[in-house]
Amino acid sequence: MSQKLPSLTPKQLLRALTRKRAGFYVCHTSSRGSHIHLCHPDDPTILVDIAMHAKTLKRGTLHNILRQAKLTRQEFLQLLR
């Protein structure tokens, strides 16, 4: 059975996705800084939006962000290590 997705803040998620292993980079920030848009250099069709706030992300929101990033649950859990 696969592991559940952990509870993360948007800042922790951003750190995991922008590490060199995931390959994402910040390509745009909203004018108020409430959302960060990530791009992937290998595949320009992958665009990930993260709402920046102090609360932890709901598991459904995290699942949808991983779907946008085209990452499986197992791949994402490896990035957190």
Give an account of the 3D structure.
The chain has 81 residues and is α+β, with helices and mostly antiparallel strands. It has one domain: Metal Transport, Frataxin, Chain A. It is 32% helix and 19% strand. It is built from three helices and three strands. It has helices at 10-17, 59-68, 73-80; strands at residues 25-29, 35-39, 47-51. Strands 1-2-3 form a three-stranded antiparallel beta sheet. The longest helix has 10 residues, at 59-68. It starts with 9 loop residues before the first helix and ends with a helix.
Spell out the blueprint of helices and strands.
Layout: H1 10-17, E1 25-29, E2 35-39, E3 47-51, H2 59-68, H3 73-80
Antiparallel strand pairs: 1-2, 2-3
- Give the overall shape, derived from the CA principal axes: globular
Low-confidence stretches: none
Main sheet summary? 3 strands, antiparallel
Helix-strand category? alpha+beta
Give the strand tally: 3
Arithmetic mean of pLDDT: 91
> How many domains is the backbone divided into?
1
Given the structure, what is the number of helices? Answer: 3
CATH class: Alpha Beta
Order of helices and strands: HEEEHH
CATH superfamily descriptor: Hypothetical protein
End-to-end CA span: 19 Å
Report helical residue fraction: 25-40%
The spatial strand order of the largest sheet comes to: 1-2-3
Give the DSSP E fraction (strand runs of 2 or more residues).
15-25%
